């Protein structure tokens, strides 16, 4: 069975599975981020990209998945926050929602970026 430990990701098979999940999430993020139609807030931007960013951050923080490089996270964040700024008004949200949602998006990317910075600078 290889290396074993007490936690749920302390064996080689579980680590491989964790790596596969992280890779799948990054592939989803890259696919959405690279397609302007999918990046739209009322398309996959909010339904797939942002949930994938959060799940990836959770897997990195809680289970020790390898995060993407910090520069990649910053690239994703800039592109999506720019998309948000350019298109949110077209969805006619309240100012409270608009501001609150932007804060959540920025904080989610910041969380993943901090995890990436910590991992890749050690």
Q: Brief description of this entry?
A:
This protein is mostly helical and about 120 residues long. It is about 75% helix and about 0% strand.
Q: Secondary structure elements and their pairing?
A:
Blueprint: H1 12-33, H2 36-39, H3 41-63, H4 70-87, H5 95-120
Structural shape: elongated
Order of helices and strands: HHHHH
The tally of strands reads 0
Average residue pLDDT = 95
Total number of helices: 5
Which stretches are poorly predicted, pLDDT < 50 over at least 5 residues?
A: none
Give the strand content: under 5%
Alpha-carbon Rg, integer: 16 Å
Helix vs. strand class: mainly alpha
Structure description:
The protein has 5 helices and no strands. It is mainly α. It has one domain. The model has no long low-confidence stretch (mean pLDDT 95).
Relevant terms:
122 residues; 76% helix
